[in-house]
What we know:
Strand content: 15-25%
Bound molecules: S-adenosylmethionine
CATH topology of the largest domain: Rossmann fold
Shape: globular
CATH class of the largest domain: Alpha Beta
Amino acid sequence: xxxxxxxxxxxxxxxxxxxxxxxxxxxxxxxxxxxxxxxxxxxxxxxxxxxxxxxxxxxxxxxxxxxxxxxxxxxxxxxxxxxxxxxxxxxxxxxxxxxxxxxxxxxxxxxxxxxxxxxxxxxxxxxxxxxxxxxxxxxxxxxxxxxxxxxxxxxxxxxxxxxxxxxxxxxxxxxxxxxxxxxxxxxxxxxxxxxxxxxxxxxxxxxxxxxxxxxxxxxxxxxxxxxxxxxxxxxxxxxxxxxxxxxxxxxxxxxxxxxxxxxxxxxxxxxxxxxxxxxxxxxxxxx
Length: 287
Ligand SMILES: C[S@@+](CC[C@H](N)C(=O)[O-])C[C@H]1O[C@@H](n2cnc3c(N)ncnc32)[C@H](O)[C@@H]1O
């Protein structure tokens, strides 16, 4: 691949998905795009880039984004956040929302769905407490292919062995040959939506809990800050954000939640003593 093709791809990936690819990652691009060169029957990677530039080959841009994204995920990945969700965040929200009985949870950058199903399994575990509640789990990703796998809910033996307790496997999955399929009630609990986190996210509505994990690490500082600001707008003032263990960014509109390891709370609504309080100023303005 020529240097010009590599630079074009770096800019394309950053603009379309936020992926901040270091200048020494040429081998990564070559190895991840080689299968695409074959499947689209291009003569070379440079030929692929020429057609990507022309933007006239249906499906090519999305295939390049999908091939370059890391879709790595697993059930109950990293353990701790799901334990915090079950034991601290959820009881807190169940108490705070007892009047409205509504709860919305967002798995942003959901990949193939294991995170969303893990959240659904936690919620199913407290089911008696959620009777008559309106609970929504929304799973989004920029990759329609990853979401389609999640929506189908069929996983290999290897995938279910990664993080899923045997009790949960037997309770929520049915074995079909060598694979396991999530039972219909759990699948029905999740809405799957294609959404690019670089774009406008307001159409997704307001959430009580956001899991946005293992995506900020691929973005540069400016894109990270922008995404965290959008999540802050999407989150209820007493809501909770779960990030990957190394993804917190100082100066963002969240503060680590001392009670719930892995979680962060919005800080925009906490008045700073002595600082102008926009809520009070608004009240004064209307008389
Ligand atoms: C490493 S997976 C994370 C999966 C899950 N959150 C977890 O922690 O296990 C990252 C996912 O982010 C998605 N992604 C990357 N850039 C994105 C963007 N700009 N908008 C939405 N999804 C994006 C990829 O398609 C991929 O499925």
